[in-house]
Design a protein that fits this description.
This protein is an alpha/beta fold. The protein folds into 2 domains: 2-73, no CATH class; 75-265, Vaccinia Virus protein VP39 (Rossmann fold), CATH 3.40.50. 37% of the residues lie in helices and 18% in strands. It is built from 9 helices and 7 strands, in the order ααααβαβαββαβαβαβ. Helix 7 links the parallel strand 4 (158-163) and strand 5 (186-196). Helix 4 (64-87) packs across helix 5. The radius of gyration is 18 Å and the shape is globular.
Length: 271
């Protein structure tokens, strides 16, 4: 009960930017290193994003510490699967890669072993601090971006951009805007991969951030197949292909039952 109260106090966000607090990084730095991992896991558990099975029957009879370690391992395994089964065919040692909505950095860490460098961006300052603690690497740059665009990144910077478990939490106008920003950062003929939840849009629950309780709930939006294609075309993408993730590889996560959009930025740029 005590930690669930703490989760309520820490996790709320009008912008779905859970743990977006400037004090997280200095708080982690102030804790003795042997205790930092435990605090990092408990902070991540306060968000509805990352440790989604912690309150389920997935870990019967285990201590709180064991549950969080189990969720840590599960995240590492599923992100390694995404890297190896979905992204690896597109990766090359000379590549610069953008991870949009990186969360705690599990996928960025996996990808970093196959490319020249990874820039990993998230809206939450707190989760970026946790990523640096759990998944740092010599060729990874973690950036907290609370701006309404990716202005901190230049045009045509990346050979590959990807985003998983992000667009399902965005409204339609946000999705259109951020897809446009991702295409802008792609080099000519660069490749993009973005995960979407395809389904009847009318099933998407409505959240009102002005309602106090809705600040602690995770928005989940379904998109129609044609809608995703239209959004990508409007963003300037070309050679768009939408595939069921399970047709590419097995992922032991919700992403495994959803879709991935693959696209390129043509040499002419935005259409």
């Amino acid at each position: 009960m005590t930690w669930q109260l703490g989760r309520t106090l820490l996790g709320g966000s009008r912008r779905q930017a859970f743990l977006d607090y400037a004090w997280v990084a200095p708080a982690l730095a102030a804790v003795p290193k042997p205790l930092r991992r435990s605090l990092t896991l408990r902070l991540l558990a306060a968000s509805p994003h990352y440790f989604g099975r912690q309150w389920t029957s997935h870990y019967p009879g285990l201590s709180r510490r064991a549950v969080l370690e189990g969720e840590l391992d599960r995240n590492r395994v599923t992100r390694a699967q995404i890297c190896d089964r979905l992204l690896l065919p597109y990766l090359h040692p000379t590549m610069s890669v953008l991870d949009f909505g990186c969360g705690p950095g599990f996928l960025a860490k996996c990808v970093s072993t196959h490319v020249h460098d990874v820039v990993a961006v998230d809206i939450s300052r707190g989760v970026i601090a946790c990523a640096r603690e759990l998944n740092d690497g010599p060729n990874i740059v973690y950036l907290a971006n609370r701006d309404p665009d990716l202005g901190l990144l230049g045009d045509s910077m990346f050979d590959l951009v990807y985003s998983f478990a992000v667009f399902q939490h965005l409204e339609r106008d946000q999705a259109r805007h951020w897809l446009s920003e991702l295409v802008r950062t792609l080099r000519p003929e660069g490749v993009g991969l973005c995960h979407f939840a395809i389904g009847p849009p009318e099933l998407s629950p409505t959240l009102d951030p002005s309602r106090w309780l809705d600040r602690y709930r995770l928005r989940f939006n379904f998109y129609a197949m044609d809608e995703v294609r239209r959004l990508l075309v409007e963003a300037g993408a070309s050679e768009i292909e939408l595939r069921l993730t399970s047709d590419i590889g097995t992922i032991d996560d919700d992403i495994g039952a959803q879709h991935v959009a693959m696209f390129r930025r043509s040499a002419s740029g935005r259409s």
